Amino acid sequence: MSDGAPTRGRIDKREAIVRAAFTVFARRGYDQACVQEIADTAHVAKPTVYNHLTDKATLFRHALEAAADTVGNRCVAAVDLLRAPGNDLTETFNAMAGELLSACADEQGRALHRLAHSATKDFPELAESVHRRTAARLTDALADRLAQLMLSQRLRSCPPDLAAEQFLSLLTGPMEHRSRLSTYEVPAADITSIAHAGVDTFLRAYAPAG
Amino acid sequence: MSDGAPTRGRIDKREAIVRAAFTVFARRGYDQACVQEIADTAHVAKPTVYNHLTDKATLFRHALEAAADTVGNRCVAAVDLLRAPGNDLTETFNAMAGELLSACADEQGRALHRLAHSATKDFPELAESVHRRTAARLTDALADRLAQLMLSQRLRSCPPDLAAEQFLSLLTGPMEHRSRLSTYEVPAADITSIAHAGVDTFLRAYAPAG
Amino acid sequence: MSDGAPTRGRIDKREAIVRAAFTVFARRGYDQACVQEIADTAHVAKPTVYNHLTDKATLFRHALEAAADTVGNRCVAAVDLLRAPGNDLTETFNAMAGELLSACADEQGRALHRLAHSATKDFPELAESVHRRTAARLTDALADRLAQLMLSQRLRSCPPDLAAEQFLSLLTGPMEHRSRLSTYEVPAADITSIAHAGVDTFLRAYAPAG
Amino acid sequence: MSDGAPTRGRIDKREAIVRAAFTVFARRGYDQACVQEIADTAHVAKPTVYNHLTDKATLFRHALEAAADTVGNRCVAAVDLLRAPGNDLTETFNAMAGELLSACADEQGRALHRLAHSATKDFPELAESVHRRTAARLTDALADRLAQLMLSQRLRSCPPDLAAEQFLSLLTGPMEHRSRLSTYEVPAADITSIAHAGVDTFLRAYAPAG
DNA sequence: TATGAATGAGCATTCATTCAT
DNA sequence: AATGAATGAATGCTCATTCAT
């Protein structure tokens, strides 16, 4: 290779394959997805797929982990809104909650959720890995923020990871309910109302004593 | 035939097949489950399976709906504990929450949860049906109980279905978190602590005003 | 059995089965016909079919031979028209030819023709038997009539079976051509014109010398 | 690749498959033929068959049409003998008729005839296509020759396609009779005598007037 | 005798994966 | 590095046929 270009091209092709894989897996599910369709979507020949990623299973792992990182990043970014809580805590939480739900509820997020579930049987480590890159990472980040708010007496003092877990449950539980296990898209209005209701309940329960 | 017995035999065999189907689908997932294994598990020949249930898909539907009814029944029974709330509301809720989580967290409940998720792509009506027989039915039953408690001023007055949804979210969200999407069994101790924490937060948020 | 009645009922049922068999075989062909459909058509249970006729193959044989006799009878009846040849030989032959083609060209005749062809591989004796009951029997009967006409000098003298064979070929060949191997029904007008043309050619070739 | 060779290999394999398909279909009939046997006969793996020809049905269509072209070519070649009619018309017709019957009566021709008949139910377009490539094409070619002979006054003037149809019927009708619907091979001696008899009758009927 | 129920055998088709080019 | 071609392994489903009633 003269400079970085040829390598670049190869990397691009690999990325294209992984992206195509996620698209196809999202469309068909793991078992019904066929490597041929992934190759077609990536505009490559089937053996080329095997040259880059050994296995259908490997393909699946890379596709899901990449998507998990994307979703995880967006969630953490939403949580970062809590670094600058204004005077009105409710307002700040509402904003964060809205962001969070939007991040999880879009097409990619829902597909990832479904695929992660379907992976539990044959790829438990992958399900674990996705969980770590999304839910666990998000919970940790949120727990950090909540701990700060407890320190500054704006929330009742208590184990911050439990609080984080419950806050997220108040958001995702109703979402799962409404989207029928991520089957259908949830209208923006519903998302907002779920967010507000969750925040309201959370803040009532976690308001500072007195 | 002497009495209803011969018909009985047929029904028994059909039930055996449906039960076997659930077992195998739980073990392998829909796509990887093969009808032969279901037949073997039910101790019947493969065509006998087809004589009773038309399709692999039909087999799947019946197996899941039967399991959903079982799980749903146990959940509703747990909620019925709220019909006789003692003096200590916390204690009653704790008991119910424990029952509820045990019902959802056992092997069958977790398998059903996974399978329902995997069904969303190819059997959306089935996912919907399972949802109706479990989560939706449970939410409705719980909302009824909460409405009564609001009337008798033991809970703050507010839309009961929202309250029910949030209560259940406070239980199932952490469960899903801990079980890694229903992959692993959650130890009884953790179940209890999740139940208590959920009840605590819920009652704080929904305590009667003032 | 008290008198002939119960036996009658049994015979009727057997006939119904054989008739149903021909209907279904005609509709589907031998391989694609399934015994269940025959049983349904005859309004009987499947094992009843096996009680009366041992085999799918046996069913086929009886169905075809019965149909062959029916068709054969009609053909021979047509040939009998030659027993009373009027003054105008052409007219008599035309009448017979028309009858003959109508007999072979109706739904049953065409179905029998197709089925006999499909039987040659696996049931050569059956194909032979059908041939004997239809084409061969018809040829013989016609040869008898032609021999008489030769004796009475109304036709040129020559081997009568060859003449019969050729006469029938002049009728059935064009029919097979027009019906696309018995696939389609041939319009009545075409039948008449084929008949007349065949008779014309035949009588020209077999006209008495001088 | 040096020249066109590699492509050649593929074509050869495809042709081998189609040829094998005809062999097996001829041996078993459509329904009883199994793709595995075709693959074995062609010395390929079963999926290779599917790589080249989509379907069992497609396989059937290609096999029959190829065979039909072969038979059709030989028939047309036979008819071409009439382009140079010698002084003795009978002799020329006898030669052509012999050629014609040999072409239709060999193993391949008889198999094609049987298969075309069995195809009428499920592949009417195919039966039509085979008919067009053989009988119809042959009739047309013969009609052309007969028209020329009429013009040169060596045959009585009349519609040439009707004459062609009748001539062919005088040959194939008795053949079908003797071969019991193409079941058995017809001895060469019989072929000759059928040919001569057919020609004799035809020329008597179509001799120029006066 | 008539039938509901059960089964053994068979077959088309799909797909992940590997070679040779 | 990329691909056309080939294959081994699997699986859903159908159907003729037989028991037991």
**CA gyration radius of chain A, whole angstroms:** 20 Å
Poorly predicted spans of chain A: 1-5
Taken from the alpha-carbon principal axes, the silhouette of chain A is elongated
Q: How much helix is in the residues of chain A?
A: over 70%
Estimate the strand proportion of chain A: under 5%
Largest interface: A-B, 39 and 39 residues
Report the total helices of chain A.
Answer: 9
Overall pLDDT of chain A, averaged?
93
Structural class of chain A: mainly alpha
Work out the oligomeric state of the chains in this entry. Answer: homotetramer
Q: What's the short version?
A:
With 210 residues, chain A is mostly helical. Chain A has helices spanning 5-28, 35-41, 46-52, 56-79, 89-105, 107-119, 124-151, 160-178, 188-206.
Walkthrough of the structure:
The structure is a homotetramer of 210-residue chains. The first copy, chain A, is built from nine helices and no strands. In chain A, helix 7 packs across helix 8. With 210 residues, chain A is an all-alpha fold. Chains in contact: A-B, C-D. The A-B interface holds A 28-32, 114, 116-118, 120-122, 124, 127-128, 131, 135, 139, 162, 165-166, 168-170, 172-174, 177, 180-183, 197-198, 201-202, 204-206 and B 28-32, 114, 116-118, 120-122, 124, 127-128, 131, 135, 139, 162, 165-166, 168-170, 172-174, 177, 180-183, 197-198, 201-202, 204-206. Chain B binds a DNA duplex (21 and 21 nucleotides) through helix 1 and helix 3.
Short descriptors:
homotetramer; 210 residues; mainly alpha; disordered N terminus; DNA-binding
Tell me the layout of helices and strands.
The structure is a homotetramer of 210-residue chains.
Chain A: H1 5-28, H2 35-41, H3 46-52, H4 56-79, H5 89-105, H6 107-119, H7 124-151, H8 160-178, H9 188-206
Helix pairs in contact in A: 1-2, 1-4, 4-5, 4-6, 4-7, 5-9, 7-8, 8-9
The structure holds a DNA duplex (21 and 21 nucleotides).
